[in-house]
Amino acid sequence: MLSQYLTGNIACVDSVTSWEESIRLGAAPLLKNGNINESYIDDMIANVHEFGSYIVIIPGVAMPHAQNKGGVNKSGMSLLKLTEPVMYPEEKAVNLIMVLGAVDSNGHLDLISDLSTLLVDDDVLQALEQAKTETEILHVIKQAE
Amino acid sequence: MSNQFANNQATASKPSVRAKIQAMGGFLTNMVLPNIGAFIAWGILTALVIETGWLPNAHLAEMVGPTITYLLPLLLAYTGGRMVGGQRGAVMGSIGAIGLIIGSDIPMFLGAMIIGPFGGWVIKRFDKLIENKIRAGFEMVVNNFSIGILGFFLLLLSYTVIGPVISAANGFVTSAIEALVATGFLPLLSLINEPAKVLFLNNVIDQGIYYPLGMQETLEVGKSIYFTVASNPGPGLGLLLAFTFFGNKTSRRTAPGAIIIHFFGGIHELYFPYVLMKPLTILGMIAGGMSGIATFQLFGAGLVAGPSPGSIFAYLALTPRGNFTGIILGVLVATIVSFIVTSLILKFEKSSDEDDDQLTESIERSKTMKSEGKQIYSSSDDSAKTSAVNKISFVCDAGAGSSALGATTFRKKLQKADLNGIEVKHYRIEDAPQDSDIIVVHKNLLDRARMTFKDQKIITIDNYIGDPKLEELLQQLAKNNH
To answer: CATH top-level class for B359-481?
Structure first.
């Protein structure tokens, strides 16, 4: 399920200049596909400004998201892999950014469930760490599903 | 230690009747307390601007009726619906309440406190029924139309049912009062007066029954006791004083303000919510009312006209010469009696809370820990806390991302550990159910969570997936289960 959501929504870059940029860049595929609009990206960034980096769900992995105030048309997820980690507030280094756009609090739970399986598995995390292209990343995720 | 576990297990598996009544009481309190501020706002307005108020103003007084008819019952229904069914429940509860309000010509407080939670329950059941059965992309449509259609039926139901119920209640109260007046033993009137007042039938009985009786008597002898039987501010004062000294924390803070508006402003409605949240205290009101009437009767005291609003000042202004002792004593005796009885009731409820429910204690403890700035969840001593856990709510800002991830992961871990019967769900902070045993929230959001969950145990975490505190919680739950 997660791999279906992510297909075509994965980007890999060497580095970004700020965590804000990582969110913008990470969310770009969702924006392009019409899942979300600009206002949702602003909401996600504002969210981190307001509540700090609680979106860093495990060390190294951030899941930027915000409440849907009309900026999400269709639930979706995109992924940005950084070679060089970027610092989120409270000195948290992050190199995997998974942007979540959720229409409401319940429509996307299959996705969340897969994500959860993925993130508790240290082997999978290690494999993701090594992966450098969209194909490699998708391969890791498909195997884990 | 192991004994303690055994005890907890026993109480957890078989909740006593008393525990159920307490849970019900807690529910009423949570429904009423957040809205006391609105009652006070209305009380200030009313005390000031009505025709017999301190600064009469016909224009501003236009707000008095609609506010108590619409705003206050809607708030109660909204809160009640929200407690049962989250934000969607709140909407359903309010829809139901407006049907009641329009269908009746008295403020529908009790009705709102029933239909609010009922509406929340309906939508919750419906949502559960269709859970995971909606095709992706249709969630919004189904969500809105389910409330729309069910709400429509709720509207019809509440509107058509309530009219007849109200007129039946009015008819019953009226004939009961007439029968009691006929016995000549007036203190008995309190048996009907006090419950009827709290259900906001106060104007109906005062202006519909007692004032006509009183005016008749005044024409004959120059004063009447009937003006005092339902308007004595003493019982309400005693009740509010009891809450001031022996109520729970929030009541203690709000009751003194209510006293001023009630006793000096004469707006009796201010104490009604306190009775609604601890229904047993109606006994204090009845005892106070009875002793007040008995005192008035003993001294042959009466007033020359209906005191409206029923403030102590209006009382004194309408007391004929020679009756001051009787009137003042009647108010005083009623205050003292209702204070004593209500205090006993509040203290009894509190003490039974304590020996019955160790959770209360643990909540207090976790609060203290929070105030010390170190919300730590740790070690053997705390294990008792988790014994009665059956609802854990993960919360975050939107209720869609981190909390969902946290809840899903934790649910899987529970399954793996073979721990069943614990509900783990995710919510937006403000939507999580009040009966959650444990709230899990990121540490950055603690303050906001604490605003919504004053009494619940809150576990703060650094990340929603692998936080050590969640591992500890899992171990505690596993330990208590075996």
So the answer is: alpha beta
